[in-house]
Write a structure and sequence with these properties.
Length: 215
């Protein structure tokens, strides 16, 4: 695994394109993973630099998860989307309103939407409801109240979801399929990221396990 770090974005871009050019010459399957908002521009730059390409796919981590589920038989797995997560969170708040210390749907009609996003972010960092409760116990004041409320609603939404996977859980489920998937042993170039969630680091670990050549 090769890691390239630089504060100069143009230099990073040139290096990434050089790696892509070298991969194209080998005529073996290559995946270029970029932030979701950058996939179109990356494809455009590759096409301008090298012309057409058949053995290369540009994708985000989110697209990779979708392809893994689609191609490796994971489409049948029951999972919730962001809208469903908001509905579950709203129901959890309604059922536990009297136990909440800080949040209130009566004072904030959109609190369920914000909490759903916070819970999804925690899950992508592999922080469980139990972890959130422990964080609350080690805090004081308003922070303790906020973390306690988040832990309570997080736990409640997990119970309401039942056997379905959240979007973050589905990402980890998809990553587990990498060693026997289309991307196993491939050249993988990951470009354009400043930070990785624990979910994405888990995906990279699975790519390494699958003997992918990663830069």
């Amino acid at each position: 695994m090769e890691i390239i770090i630089s504060r100069y974005l143009k230099r990073l871009e040139r290096h990434a394109l050089t790696l892509i050019g070298e991969a194209l010459l080998k005529e073996s399957y290559t995946a270029v993973i970029v932030p979701s908002q950058a996939s179109f521009m990356t494809e455009k730059k590759i096409a301008e630099r090298f012309g057409g390409f058949c053995d290369l796919e540009v994708m985000s981590f989110e697209k990779l998860y979708a392809l893994l589920l689609e191609r490796q038989g994971g489409e049948a797995v029951l999972r919730t989307d962001s809208v469903s997560e908001e509905i579950l969170t709203k129901r959890a708040i309604s059922e536990h309103e009297q136990e909440l210390k800080l949040f209130s749907s009566r004072r904030d009609e959109l609190i369920h939407s914000r909490l759903a996003k916070q819970i999804a972010a925690l899950s992508r960092e592999m922080i469980t409801p139990k972890d959130a409760r422990e964080l609350a116990k080690s805090s004081t004041g308003a922070l303790e109240a906020k973390l306690s409320d988040i832990a309570l609603i997080y736990e409640a939404t997990e119970k309401l979801r039942g056997d379905k996977l959240s979007s973050a859980q589905a990402e980890r489920f998809a990553s587990d399929k990498i060693p026997l998937s289309f991307i196993a042993g491939a050249r993988v170039i990951i470009y354009g990221f400043d930070l990785f969630s624990k979910n994405k680091l888990y995906t990279i670990m699975k790519l390494i396990e699958a003997k992918c050549e990663i830069s």
